[in-house]
Write a structure and sequence with these properties.
The protein is an alpha/beta fold. It contains twelve helices and 16 strands.
Length: 354
């Protein structure tokens, strides 16, 4: 491992590309010496993206077998993929094959690297993590692999924590139900058009879909056993996921109490907007690479409290919450005692009003 603090990002997709840019933009504040990244396939379609990330200050690495192919399309890698891994202090895998890479590649670099991070689809990669939810469960001695939970699981979890008090000194939470209405694809993707809403199966007999299962597993790292159930469907939108929620509390609450709790959490954004496109547009205009780094965007006028029952709608800010947790996890591996102070440099993109 290099003496420098180097973060290597594997993959340049929906999460990888903005993550590389975010790390480059705040490299000095986060005390990262170098950001490197790798991409598997040499494609003329992606040449502009790779070169743009290099201009932002990131070093590019490729498999030795593909270096000539990259050179042929006008991209010169600084390192081979193996060299990048040998130099890296932290590796963030942003591909859909993180578990496969762990078994076939990363296990060979355990002595070189302080930590490995994968994204929400890679269940079982390591301890689940979401910034602001289970930071106290992290252990520098025990945790070599972390899985940043999905963007919708971030949303569910911050609702459980902030409204229900799950994982707090006083928990009001009894059980919760969620419907995750997911965008069919990100605006960066071409191939996922659907002509009409498509519902997901309840493939988990206890939790419904992976969103509730992952939220349960996330709070399990804090010794909490949350009773949650989620359903999901896709709609033909590119803008934002939308979540309907019903939280059953153990005692009656007023609407003002719920709003005050949400207002007090810096990772919760509130909005009077009711459409995902207008919230998305705010992020495009004011976010970093268009990303809102808040964990959720609550539509304030939809909050409804009847005794112990809290209902409402919220938007999941693209993958901004996953980006925040990925940065936090990387800086945690580098500076476990001071990472929270360092990531405060990202606060301008925690919007409390949208």
């Amino acid at each position: 491992m290099s003496q420098k603090n180097i973060v290597h990002v594997v993959g340049t997709g929906t999460i990888g590309e903005p993550l590389i840019g975010l790390l480059c933009s705040f490299k000095n504040q986060l005390e990262i010496d170098e950001v490197s990244f790798s991409k598997k396939t040499a494609s003329i379609y992606d040449r502009s993206k790779v070169n743009a990330l290099k201009r932002k200050g990131a070093s590019f690495a490729a498999d030795e077998s593909t270096i000539e192919a990259f050179r042929n399309i006008g991209i010169t890698p600084e390192y081979t993929f193996e060299q990048a891994l040998e130099r890296a202090s932290v590796v963030i895998d942003c591909t859909p094959v993180g578990n496969q890479n762990k078994a076939q590649v990363y296990e060979n670099y355990l002595d070189n690297t302080r930590g490995f991070i994968a994204q929400g689809s890679e269940f079982g990669f390591g301890k689940m993590y979401a910034r602001g939810i289970n930071d106290h469960a992290l252990s520098p001695e025990k945790d070599k692999f972390l899985q940043v939970v999905s963007c919708n699981t971030h949303n569910l979890s911050i609702l459980l924590k902030t409204i229900g008090g799950v994982g707090q000194e006083k928990s009001y939470f009894d059980h919760g139900r969620f419907v995750c209405i997911r965008r069919a694809n990100d605006i960066s993707q071409d191939k996922s058009f659907i002509p009409a809403p498509v519902v997901n199966e309840h493939d988990d007999e206890t939790f419904g879909t992976h969103h509730a299962r992952d939220a349960h597993e996330l709070f399990k790292t804090l010794g909490q056993d949350v009773q949650v159930f989620s359903s999901a469907l896709k709609t033909n939108s590119q803008f934002m996921h939308t979540v309907w929620f019903h939280l059953k509390l153990k005692e009656s609450q007023s609407l003002d109490q719920i709003v005050n709790r949400l207002d007090s959490n810096e990772l919760v954004a509130m909005t009077n907007k009711k459409s995902s496109n207008t919230v998305f547009s705010f992020g495009r205009d004011h976010g970093h690479f268009g990303r809102i780094l808040s964990q959720t965007v609550i539509v304030k006028d939809t909050l409804h409290v009847v005794g112990q029952d809290v209902y409402g709608w919220c938007f999941t800010p693209q993958d901004g919450n996953s980006l925040l947790s990925s940065v936090a996890a990387a800086v945690y591996f580098l500076y476990p005692q001071s990472y929270e102070e360092k990531i405060n440099c990202l606060k301008p993109y925690f919007f409390q009003e949208i």
